[in-house]
Amino acid sequence: MIRYTHIFLLLSLLGCSSALQAAQTEFFDTTFGDFSEELQTAKEEQKSGIFVFFEMDECPFCHRMKTSILNQPDVISYFKKHFKIFQVDIEGDVEMTDFDGSVTTQKDFAFKKHRVRATPVLAFFDLDGKLVARYTGATSSKEEFMLLGDYVVNGHYASTSFTRFKRQQRQSQ
User: Residue 172: CB partners within 8 Å, gap ≥ 6?
Assistant: First the structure.
């Protein structure tokens, strides 16, 4: 016999699933896996760089980011304006091309090339494919994630750490 609690649980899970799918379809850009080509597109579109969201399927922190931060309209708008945005599954065997044109897998791109060991890792690359900022773990809030975007877009990474930048921003308010 199906109970109302089972129906509620099923509907709740479906709701989370659709919120997750919405975040994935709106926030992330579609790619054929050639990041060297994506760099060229980012230059042509006058973006600040490329944002890579390193993730794992069963990662609760990745899930929280997708369902509570990456699905927010102002977040989507800001990041789409300034970055090409891609997901990389750190366990993925999908073949891809790195920024320098080397063929690899998502797993090797994450582990060997960028030493990703925990998820999520929020990685920002400049228009030459050079890693300029990296944040390991989920941000504590949408505001912190937006501040991280501002930190990269306005080039603060060149002169200070994100932790120091956050502290300066709090003191100036």
Answer: none
Token pair in block for residue 73? 């309209």
Q: Nearest to residue 161, comparing CAs of 131, 133, 137?
A: 133
What residue spans define the domains of the chain? 28-172
Considering the chain, what is the average pLDDT of its residues?
A: 88
Listed residue (120, 119, 170, 172) closest to 143, CA to CA: 170
Alpha carbons 59 and 98: distance in angstroms, whole number: 24
Answer whether CATH 3.40.30.10 is correct for domain 28-172.
Answer: yes
Q: pLDDT category, 172, cuts 50, 70, 90?
A: confident
Angle (nearest 5°) at CA 82 between 147 and 98: 105
pLDDT of residue 17: 47
CA 36 to CA 103: how far, in whole Å? 10
- Residues 135, 158: Cα–Cα separation, whole Å: 15
Give the alpha-carbon dihedral of 24, 107, 48, 67, to 10 degrees: 30
DSSP 58: T
pLDDT in tens, 130-161: 999 999 999 999 999 999 999 999 999 999 99
pLDDT digits (tens, 9 = 90+) for 118-133: 999 999 999 999 999 9
Q: Beta strands 95-97 and 131-136: pairing type?
A: unpaired
